[in-house]
Known about the structure:
GO terms for molecular function: aldehyde-lyase activity. One of its GO terms (biological process) is carbohydrate metabolic process. This is Phosphoketolase. Keywords: Lyase, Thiamine pyrophosphate. The protein is α/β, with parallel strands linked by helices. The chain folds into three domains: about 5-350, Thiamin diphosphate (ThDP)-binding fold, Pyr/PP domains (Rossmann fold); about 375-580, Rossmann fold, CATH 3.40.50; about 600-780, Rossmann fold. It has a six-stranded parallel sheet with strand order 12-9-13-14-16-15, sandwiched between helices. A five-stranded parallel sheet has the order 1-2-3-5-4, with helices on both faces. The protein has a five-stranded mixed sheet with strand order 18-20-19-21-22. Strand 2 (about 160-165), helix 7 (about 175-180) and strand 3 form a beta-alpha-beta unit. Helix 1 packs across helix 3 (about 85-95), helix 1 (about 5-25) crosses helix 5 (about 110-120) and helix 2 (about 55-70) packs across helix 9 (about 240-265). The longest helix has 29 residues, at about 240-265. Mean pLDDT is about 95; it is low at about 1-5.
Amino acid sequence: MNTDTENIDLYVEYWNAANYLAAAQFYLKENPLLRVPLKPEHLKPRIRGHWGSAPGLNLIYVQLNRLIQKTKAQFLFITGPGHCSSAILANLYLEGTYTEFYPEVSQDIDGLTLFCRQFSSPGGVPSHLSAMTPGSIHEGGELGYSLLHAFGAAFDHPQLIVAAVVSDGEAETGPLAASWQSINFLNPLRDGAVLPIFHVNDGKLSGPTIFGRMEDKDIAMFFSGLGYDPLFVCGDDPQKVHADLFKALDQSYLAIRQIQAEAKEKGLKAKPKWPMIVLRTPDGWTGPKEVDGVRIEGTYRSHRSPLMDARENPDHLKILESWLKSYRPEKLFDEKGKLREDLLALAPKGHLRMGASPYANGGSLLVDLALPDFTEYRVPVKQPGTSVSEPTHVLGKYIRDVIRRNPKNFRIFCPDETDSNRLSAVFEVTSRCFVSKIFPDDDYLSPDGRVMEILSEHCCQGWLEGYLFSGRHGLLVSYEAFAMILDSMASQHAKWLKLYREIPWRKPVASLNYLLSSHVWRQEYDGYTHQGPGFIDTLINKKGNVIRIYLPADTNTLLAVMDHCLRSRNYINLVIAEKQPSLDWLDMDEARAHCARGASTWLWASNDNGKPDIVLGCAGDVPTLETVAASWLLQKYFPELKVRVVNVVDLMILSPPAYHPHGIDEQNFINLFTTSQPVLFAFHGYPRMIHDLIHGRPNPARFHVRGYQEEGTTTTSFDMVVLNKISRYNLAIDAIKYALKSVPHLRTKGEELIGFFERKIVEHSTFVRTHLDDMPEIKNWTWSNPITS
């Protein structure tokens, strides 16, 4: 590549154009090219955004454009620094992709004015990247996930190189610290490559960064120890830094291609030493040197937008005008306001432009999964509640065959819990991915494995998000309690999806599917710290057109639900299921119909003949077991009381349709729960969630919800439900109390039975602490005709 001064000067000019537009977006609502002297009325009343990292990002983008022009390689650009979208937007505008997606932002003065006005303004675009940004699959609003998204996008895309800019501030987060380990899972024979560009400018909002104060030799040792081969580019002289980055990118590209070629020629012998670049430039580079006698450039003071009060302060207005004019916009843009033709020629064309990368609009690359017929994995159910199976163990066979049929676009992401959650059948067709040392006595480890296990929930979700947004499918499996580690990531993903669905040029992507097992009601040895159903609460408050929550009651309903989730698009699907042996309630035909409706009256478990005295609702496998057992107890000992059992598998059907698209209409809700009879609802999670969902339904005060009450310990299955007052005995007691208000003539018998069930709870407590196990009548209970049993 020719690195003569003339070419370097052209790239510096292009960079100046990008820097100018990055800064202009912060301040200007009129006069976008300073064709007349700058006045206060040309400035926005609200100045928002972060300037500090923008010049470094522009430098990287410009030099990646040069590398793409030279190599014609497919690059995806991921930006870690938050609130720096002005830099990326500037480059998208200059390369023409922004105008292609948003024609109203034209390549002239009018378009440029709109381009500046819309930044961080009402009705415009945010100061961080978003789903509205062409070329982006990563927001950066919450730091820590850029490198994870980059590796997720590179998995199974062998032709792709993902340039991931990581800021030194972002590198202080826990998720990013774990992200560097991702090279232990990147296989050069089947995956693309990730080129981390670690941007060190020693600036956060109000102080220095840890890496910013480290010596280069210490940074080199840190990354070398992790398995990278770092190249350093440092300085503040534009020509020299451009030339040095020019060379470093060339060297990195050649190293990547050599690693890939050697792997194809000789096989993968050891974990490669992948290149990375450490770019050290001043924070706020090329911005104001000092303001009011205080140094700005090269300090944290430039990290946000300097000169925030330029509209009110005449001296600061002069500094702003001088700063913007230092880029010489009159030399960069023609009379119509378009970038000079010789500079335009520096940008790639068509899909090679990073803003137009098809990998950033993954739905355009998405191929439907070849799914097996889930009904072939059914468990036979001759009579409800008499046979036993392990739901996730059976599901594992179905997922095994999903992997078998889709060997290049489906992966499982799991924090070391695939076996624990009973999905072991997948290891019949694949292994755990591991691109490092493998010993002869290791189980199911291979560089080709499609099960991604690392003890970091953040890594698992970050990889999966990058994998999905670049056009593939996956499943995240976790213990329920530890899913709450992902609360913030799930919220970010839900918000991205909400916007994503509203943008016409964004093609639908595969849904993010969670399977949570080892759940709150089955933690016999992990104990209180592993008992937490709060992930439901996180998702239930997100936009209804994005969120789906499923609580299958048994194996066949789990199979039906998971098949549906793997076929869906643009959702977050949460599925919570039992891994322990549990009773089967529905045969496959019944399960399919039940899941299609979202909720059903289980006639076989009811005796109300259409006129219940009490409705027993339930959602979740263990609450369903206790509800059905409570109905059995009531029918056996109190047949005069008319009981209806309603099982809910799709939690969001409880919500009125105005709040969630799955909400059933009022008549169907009444058909299930009546308009006036008391409802005792046993719920997998925290009780208040059901009360929130049914707000707006007929007479919601008649709903009495039982669920997890933050009581628990290392104990038996049944003791857990007793401690939280959701056991069959507790439900039977409460059902009688609520029903007696409408059938007072049964009060005497009802009160006698309340006493009987209260004594059973005491008997259980004594038994479990004496024998360290549940009573046989609990452990061995199955459904039978309560009248004759």
